[in-house]
Amino acid sequence: MGMLRFFQVLGGLALFLFGMRMLSSGMEKIAGDRIQGLLERMTKGRLRAALFGTGVTAALQSSSLMMATMIGLINTNLMTLEQAIGMMMGDEIGTTITAQIVAFDIDYFTFLFVAVGFLLVEFLPRSKWSDYGEVVMGFGILFLGMNLMSDALEVITTIPAVEKWFVAMGQNTLAGLLAGTIATAVIQSSSAVTGLAVAMGISQVISLEGAVAILLGANIGTCATGFIASFRLSRAARQASIAQILINVIGVVIFLPFLSPFIDLVRLTSSELPRQIANAHTIFNVAVSALLFPFVGWIAIAARRLAPEKKVEDEVKLTAYIDEMEFVFPSLALTEGRKELVRLGETAAQMIHNSRLGLIEGDVEAIEWVLQQEDGFIDPVTDLLENFINGLMRQNLSTAEQKRCFQLKNLLTDIERVGDLAEDLAEAAQRRISDDTPFSSDAIEDLDRLCRHAHETFSHALRAFQTGDRELAQRACIMEDEFDHLYIEAREGHIERLRVGVCAPEADILYTETLRNLERISDHADNLGISTLRN
């Protein structure tokens, strides 16, 4: 019987975690785009960052998710360490909402939440109602897991050895602290360990002293996720994870000498043990954040000094925005992926311009730059972006997010091809110089006009995609039609010049291939414009 109840606790914990993830996933889908806008506005100051951290963690029910996101943002230079520390303090407060929620007694509605959520997900797929259904069903499953754990714990603690262990935990703060730290590091969810402590309180199998010790340990153990993730990232990201450890360890050290009066204070807040446990968690985190907030600058200095120096400098990053840590926030990942794609496109546009300099003016340095960019930037960044988008598509995305992923992937192909075609133009310019291939003045004039037009069309299409400017996208599509007419005129003019002997026959293949490559660049620019108009 004891083993069966033990398995019931594990199953209840699994349901609790599953419910939390479903709840978090649904909330992220509902608020994803809003989070990106808020992130840009709310993280500019420390207080704003703290408020943002509190609100988002309270809504998404995942402090580990927030920490991973912060590390990703620091790694891509979108957030300073001081801003991240402010957000961490808000995050510490926001994560206490879980304990406050699960301390409510809503047994009668648990299965109703599961049923209603299931109906919304099952019968209204690919709609916002399905996302709301995930939230409702996740909420119900979370409470179902809580009920299973509390029921099983009530029976398990009748076993003398288990009862003795729980009593010892209440009497030995260090044992409870260690248990909370290890459990949170393994489960990677301080909210789950807090929920387990509340479940123990519901079953009356643990004292308030023991529960508080576990909660203090959970605050330290939650640092494990970010700390482990930071090892493969930049030094700034490692500093952020160390700052989180400093905040939580300092908070625990401050409270330990005053544990008895703190527990007496908590007892005054409610007559029910589960609510006392939840209140202890909230009071502790609010107090620590308030006490340490004025010292954000000092914590940042300490984190910078404690972050281990690498013997070899961090490798130069080819990408400026994307990072796999952003997968925890797909909406943010999509926005940063879009920025990275635009950055790639800007390089491709410059390659078109420099290829024109090589073709028309014989600029050898411009040709070399284009060839270097293709192998050293366009190809590797394309691979990184493709892997990033593929990884993002494996996440739990909303229908709108899936659509945006497909758009990015299609446009990545177009921009990569523009880079390849610009390389072909540069190689053509290189051959023209090395072979001293003659172009007539009329041929050069037509070629210059087409190069400029292709570059302008692609630049307009790229800017329209970046800004969402539909008028500019429409203009790019019109310019592509104009290019087709210019291309036909240039090709017919070339044929006529060949016929009358103005153009040399040995220039025919090189010139014709160059015209065709410019036409293809214009076609890919048209794809960018059409994509912006459709999305």
Describe the structure.
With 535 residues, this protein is mostly helical. The protein has 2 domains: 2-306, no CATH class; 329-534, Up-down Bundle (Methane Monooxygenase Hydroxylase, Chain G, domain 1), CATH 1.20.58. 83% of the residues lie in helices and 0% in strands. It contains 22 helices and no strands. The chain has helices at 2-42, 46-60, 63-75, 81-94, 97-102, 107-123, 128-156, 160-171, 173-187, 190-202, 208-221, 223-230, 235-255, 259-267, 273-292, 296-306, 330-361, 364-393, 399-435, 441-467, 470-500, 508-534. Helix 4 (81-94) runs antiparallel to helix 15 (273-292). It starts with a helix and ends with a helix. Mean pLDDT is 82; it is low at 311-315.
Task: Please report the number of helical segments.
Answer: 22
Number of strands: 0
Q: Are there runs of 5+ residues with pLDDT below 50, and where?
A: 311-315
Report the radius of gyration as a whole number of Å: 30 Å
- Give the DSSP E fraction (strand runs of 2 or more residues): under 5%
Give the overall shape, derived from the CA principal axes: elongated
How many domains comprise the coordinates? Answer: 2
User: Helix share of residues?
Assistant: over 70%
- What is the terminal separation in angstroms? 59 Å
The biggest sheet amounts to: none
Sequence of secondary-structure elements: HHHHHHHHHHHHHHHHHHHHHH
Structural class: mainly alpha
Q: Tell me, rounded to a whole number, the average pLDDT.
A: 82
Task: List key phrases describing it.
Methane Monooxygenase Hydroxylase, Chain G, domain 1, mainly alpha, 535 residues, 2 domains
